[in-house]
Design a protein that fits this description.
42 residues, mainly alpha, 0% strand, globular
Length: 42
């Protein structure tokens, strides 16, 4: 859970859409982002 949350946060902070954080989420989290993290960022 912490990995998914961290990768979601770093993906949002990254300047490019195709970054290592998005790739990590795609590979190890089935492409899903952490909803709790996204809600905090909204």
């Amino acid at each position: 859970m912490k990995f998914k949350s961290s990768m979601t946060l770093f993906e949002r902070a990254a300047k490019t859409p195709d970054n290592v954080f998005a790739l990590a989420l795609d590979k190890w989290c089935g492409g899903q982002r952490d909803t709790a993290t996204l809600q905090l960022l909204a």
